[in-house]
């Protein structure tokens, strides 16, 4: 885990108000006044992407709205910067669960040519933009991976595939579970 990863993990642990639930993260992103900034935050969150996997590399042609397995889905093709065996990954975003944020991205990219990067900014500029709103790309990744566990019951193998890791060791550093998340899972079945 990098120095920045540890720094933001400690920051989230010391400031639990940063760990928004899904509804609050949607409201937060929709409340960002600048369309580019809100689309950037939405794409970072929905894909769980590293800033180097989103800025300067994703073009309109890399985001496809389609139907798969009888579900509307937004497929985002992006590089996988930390896994030398899998250089690219495709992140599925279920429209039925993420309609608001996916719609925000769809609206933003509608004016772009197919081969032009939709965020033609430097990674450091992306960090400045996201920090202006109180978060950063790494925190968005933490939140998304946490929400995948809480909302979608992702297991370790699914997290490895989604996050683009080579193994499950990083998973324990990305989970930002609150006591209420644990309580929600403690239901009797039957």
Describe, in short, the structure shown:
The chain is mainly alpha-helical.
Account of the protein in words:
- The structure is a single chain.
- The chain is mostly helical and 190 residues long.
- The chain has one domain: Intergrase catalytic core (hpI Integrase, Chain A).
- 52% of the residues lie in helices and 12% in strands.
- The chain has ten helices and three strands, in the order ααααβββαααααα.
- It has a three-stranded antiparallel sheet.
- The protein starts with a helix and ends in a 5-residue tail after the last helix.
- The mean pLDDT is 85.
Q: How are the secondary structure elements laid out?
A:
Layout: H1 3-14, H2 22-30, H3 35-47, H4 51-54, E1 63-68, E2 71-79, E3 88-94, H5 95-109, H6 123-132, H7 137-152, H8 156-163, H9 171-174, H10 179-185
Antiparallel strand pairs: 1-2, 2-3
Helix pairs in contact: 3-5, 3-7
> Could you tell me the radius of gyration in angstroms?
16 Å
Largest sheet: 3 strands, antiparallel
Form type: globular
Strand-residue fraction? 5-15%
Number of helices: 10
Mean pLDDT across residues? 85
Instruction: Name the CATH class.
Output: Mainly Alpha
Distance between the termini: 40 Å
CATH superfamily: Intergrase catalytic core
Order of helices and strands: HHHHEEEHHHHHH
CATH architecture label: Orthogonal Bundle
Structural class: mainly alpha
Whole-number total of structural domains:
1
> What proportion of the residues is helical, as a percent range?
40-55%
Give the beta-strand count: 3
- Order of strands across the main sheet: 1-2-3
Low-confidence stretches: none
Under CATH, the topology can be stated as: hpI Integrase, Chain A
């Amino acid at each position: 885990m990098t120095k920045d990863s540890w720094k933001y993990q400690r920051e989230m642990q010391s400031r639990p108000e940063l760990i928004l639930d899904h509804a609050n993260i949607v409201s937060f992103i929709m409340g960002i006044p600048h369309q580019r900034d809100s689309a950037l935050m939405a794409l970072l969150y929905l894909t769980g992407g590293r800033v180097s996997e989103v800025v300067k590399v994703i073009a309109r042609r890399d985001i496809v709205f389609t139907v798969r397995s009888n579900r509307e889905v937004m497929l985002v093709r992006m590089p996988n910067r930390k896994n030398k065996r899998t250089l690219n990954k495709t992140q599925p975003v279920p429209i039925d669960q993420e309609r608001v944020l996916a719609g925000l991205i769809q609206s933003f990219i509608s004016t772009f040519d197919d081969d032009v990067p939709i965020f033609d900014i430097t990674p450091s500029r992306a960090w400045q933009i996201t920090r202006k709103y109180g978060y950063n790309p790494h925190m968005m990744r933490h939140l998304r991976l946490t929400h995948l566990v809480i909302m979608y019951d992702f297991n370790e193998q699914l997290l490895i595939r989604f996050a683009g890791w080579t193994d499950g060791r990083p998973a324990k550093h990305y989970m930002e579970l609150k006591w209420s998340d644990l309580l929600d899972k403690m239901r009797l079945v039957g």
